[in-house]
Design brief:
The structure is a homotetramer.
Chain A (H helix, E strand, L loop, with lengths): L9 E3 L2 E7 L15 H16 L4 H5 L7 E12 L8 E12 L2 E10 L2 E14 L9 H8 L2
Antiparallel strand pairs in A: 1-2, 2-4, 3-6, 4-5, 5-6
């Protein structure tokens, strides 16, 4: 398997940046990116930011000592500013704003050449197998704090 | 072609209701519906509500006298309350809150047996071919006002 | 909760028919339905056909006596004939061709006013929790044979 | 805007390779990647292979001298061999088998550490604005022949 540099984006100071290309599947007949797909782009950004911090979904889902857990989006305020289009190279920016108990607050943006096309405030909660909020395990909390 | 009753849902007093079944495609590996898909369900609800009021996307997109136009979502506040699961029968509820100039404000909910799983406040704007806000054509404004 | 007639389509003699509306999410910037989405439509058809025969995904996934099992698509020959477009009312037709051991062969079509837009030959296999082929449980085999 | 190396994958001799990460959006409740999403991955591979050869969808869609045109998938034989899972790093391999008139035949694979999870034979046709097959413009034919 060949090496792929920066496939999970990069952490630059206090933000994570992930490049995303717009493909056929992302657009709709209006010619622009379908609105719900910006949420997918943001989820990719969050997943890859966590990946670079050493947090992996599949390990959380089948965790041996802490028990099964996972992140769920609880609230999202979405501001759709300008349309992205086929072939566009986008950058997904993720910043952690706050972390408390079982809850993380993030600010995310979809940019095209430094212009913000989409911005969101996101509340994510860590839950256990029964869907109940669960405090971040120590190792995870510390990994996130370095960021 | 056979007749399909209520395929576009029903208007009941001041709300539109659309039934939506949860299929494989809607879920993710956590077992629940993927969060961005609630936005798809809401978009189906808006489209079918407009359809019952006589407003069709394809006519707007290739409109002879008014010129090409379309709806875009400008802002959406999403509250993810409880997970929906495979095989669930959901109802998408759409209520118009306000209409002014080029702008519509709607309240939407995803329900399962009267329990709200997802709620959203949605701002939709009518735009012309250049993406500029455009006042609702008279016929459309009147159709929407009856609701 | 209101009643929704024919939400899972209808069985008419030796075929199952499910109505599907084309929404924004299904189209791409070319103006037509994105090619992979015909596979989603067909999966909805198979799921709802099984539903009417009394076979439910969530029961199979959390089955008490038979153990966890599920259907996987093993092979699909897809023939994309004509494009479907926004607002189109489609019908998904499903016919069982053969059932043997752990395997089902189906013929599926996506129709618009009796014209075939998409046709597929589909091989589906029942697998257990480890992904190994599993003979159809008796009750399921008999339900499918009536069709 | 930062530089992103290999975002469109790489051409290695007679094949194009694109890395694809599996995110939440790609999986379904069975825990594996939803079957139709392998077709999306393949479409990304084709798009990025063409991109590296100098062929861009948006230019084709709004082409000044040749008129509007685009690629459509006409036929696809899909072999689903093994499931991909959340967090997997996949490689999409694209090989051109034949090009004649308006038609291209490709072989595509989805690999995980050299193991083939999905294989497809794909027929793609270039069409004009009316959906009629259209011979490849000279510049495009020559770009593709170098591959």
């Amino acid at each position: 398997m060949t090496e792929w540099k920066d496939l999970a984006g990069r952490i630059e100071k206090d933000r994570h940046v992930l490049p995303v290309r717009v493909y056929y599947e992302d657009t709709d007949f209006s010619g622009a990116v379908y609105h719900a797909n910006y949420l997918k782009f943001c989820e990719r950004g969050r997943s890859d930011c966590l990946r670079l911090l050493g947090v992996h979904h599949h390990e959380m889902h089948w965790h041996e000592t802490e028990g099964r857990m996972g992140f769920v989006v609880r609230r999202m305020l979405c501001d759709f500013r300008k349309p992205a289009r086929i072939d566009d190279l986008l950058e997904i920016e993720t910043r952690f704003r706050e972390m408390r108990g079982a809850r993380m607050e993030l600010d995310q943006k979809v940019l095209r050449e430094c212009e913000t096309l989409f911005a969101a405030q996101v509340t994510v909660v860590l839950v256990d197998a029964a869907g109940r909020p669960k405090r971040f395990p120590k190792a995870m909390a510390e990994a996130l704090k370095t960021f």
